[in-house]
Amino acid sequence: MSQRTLLLLSQDNAHYERLLKAAHLPHLRILRADNQSEAEQLIGEAHILMAEPARAKPLLPKADKLRWLQSTYAGVDVLLDSDSRRDYQLTNVRGIFGPLMSEYVFGHLLNLTRQLPRYREQQKQRVWQSHPYQGLEGKTMLILGTGSIGQHIAHTGKHFGMKVLGISRTGRERASFDQVYQLPALNKILTQADVIVSVLPATRDTRHLFNTARFEHCKPSAILFNVGRGSAVHSGDLLVALRTGKLAMAVLDVFEQEPLPADSPLWGQPNLIVTPHNSAYSFPEDVAQIFVRNYIRFLDGQPLDGRIDFDKGY
After folding, report:
1. What would the pLDDT profile of 28-44 be if each residue is shown by its tens digit?
2. CA distances from 283 to 10, 70, 286 (A)
3. Is the separation of the CB atoms in 154 and 143 below 8 Å?
4. DSSP characters over 248-263
5. Which of 124, 167, 176, 194 has a CB 3.0–4.6 Å from the CB of 154, allowing a cystine?
């Protein structure tokens, strides 16, 4: 069997190189490009890329031997433009982000519902005063996206005694969801939701899914989380909804433009929490394991895990 050449294009190149060399994968030659100049020199040799999508995109026209690109991230939308090449297998990272995303959502949710920042301020002022709150039990959580991440968040919601509803393309039943609906039912379901969590990918159907018309169907007391893709939420419409009481609170980890510009009005909105796209980091140990499993499947000619459908966008 002929040798395959893997080119690493990541901020964690050295870490990935150590992990993959320790795996002693057969017939694999490992190269790494730590800057743009090195990447341009080596891209023509690569049969396989293990890469951050944004680093790989400008190099694809010169990747003459490319057969497979393993993204080190879940999001690969930068590689799915209509004019991007599609003559290779593209796989992303799946199945490892559920616990981290769940920690993020419920960490913030409990922080807000139990008013922990308020008590922290009172401690500084040596004020002993209790404030009313409601527990999560009996509340309704709506999760848009019912894949592995959505299912893990749903499972955690059930642990807290929440009713968990889902929205997906097919409406197929999923573990830990009380009911799953298709997208046309969204407006009706939003009227029931106390907590809304979007883990949606970036597709034509999800762009600006949350806009002025959509926020009209939300409970004024609802909390919106976006941990999927920034394009799902129209930022301007969200600001209006938060300022006019259409929505109580929003927690955003993803944005239409990243990094979020310093002059964005989102930063100063008091009932909006901004985090820098870090709800679930791609730890190299986890990503390397995914690559190792897929590489064996690649050698054997078997279907790769996490393969992206270029037409669907996920």
Report:
1. 999 999 999 999 999 99
2. 12, 14, 6
3. yes
4. SEEEES--SSSSPPTT
5. 176
pTM of this structure: 0.87
What is the token pair recorded at 218?
Answer: 């939300």
Q: What is the dihedral of CA 94, 100, 101, 107, to 10 degrees?
A: 180
Region for residue 138 given its phi and psi (left: phi exceeds 0; alpha: psi -120 to 50; beta: otherwise): left
3-class SS at 235? helix
- The residues that bridge with 198 in the sheet, in sequence order, are 144, 226
Q: What is the mean pLDDT of residues 174-183?
A: 97
HEC secondary structure over 36-53: HHHHHHHHHHCCEEEECH
Q: Which amino acid is at 260?
A: L
Looking at residue 284, what DSSP letter applies? Answer: H
Q: Residue type at 95?
A: G
Q: Are 91 and 68 in contact (CB under 8 A)?
A: yes
Report the alpha-carbon distance of residue 78 to residue 231 in Å, rounded: 12
Q: Say how far apart CA 102 and CA 150 lie, in whole Å.
A: 9
Give me the residue label for tokens 């009209």: 216
Partners of 249 in the β-ladder: 223
The pair of structure tokens assigned to 265 is 């009005």
Distance CA 85, CA 95 (A): 26
Per-residue DSSP letters for 86-113? -SSEEE---SSSHHHHHHHHHHHHHHHH
Per-residue pLDDT tens over the stretch 179-205? 999 999 999 999 999 999 999 988 888
